[in-house]
Amino acid sequence: MTAALWPLQLAIVQKARAHAPLTALVTGVFDEVPEAQPHPYITVGSITENVSDAHNQRGLDASVVLHIWSKYRGYKQAAEILSALDAALDRQPLAVTGFKDVSIAHQQHTELRDPDPEIRHINVSYRVWLTKA
After folding, report:
1. Whether the predicted model's global pTM rises above the 0.85 cut
2. 111 with 72: CB under 8 angstroms?
């Protein structure tokens, strides 16, 4: 089974960057955050894949974690970004190179306080099901 790690990450980042309501709220969506990047922004966290084959098809069941970073006092801004991120990704079509029958759904999210008292952080995980093309 070929891993979907990189093509899945590319598809998610491209989908998020193409969603105008989301890009109006953040300074970017990144794999690696540039030096001195202003807040708020989204980063790609971890991707976990499990083999999920059918009788005659290769498949994967993946979990993708994204992180929302904000310096807004309280969680209002981060929560608004989460809503826009969901509008871009949750149960929306997602084209992943080398895979078909791709579906994505919001799995869970958690508000976190960063050690830096000025930073608010929400991590959100999406579950993705893919079938090898």
Report:
1. yes
2. no
Question: What is the dihedral angle through the alpha carbons of 132, 47, 72, 25, rounded to the nearest 10 degrees?
Answer: -20
Kindly report, residue by residue over 45-103, the tens digit of the pLDDT: 999 999 998 878 899 999 999 999 999 999 999 999 999 999 999 999 999 999 999 99
* Domain extent at residue 77: 5-132
CATH of the domain at 17: 3.30.2000.30
* DSSP string for the chain: ----HHHHHHHHHHHHHT-HHHHTT-S-EESSPPTTPPSSEEEEEEEEEEE---SS--EEEEEEEEEEEE-SSSSHHHHHHHHHHHHHHTT-----TTEEEEEEEEEEEEEEE-SSTT-EEEEEEEEEEEEE-
Specify the number of domains making up the chain.
1
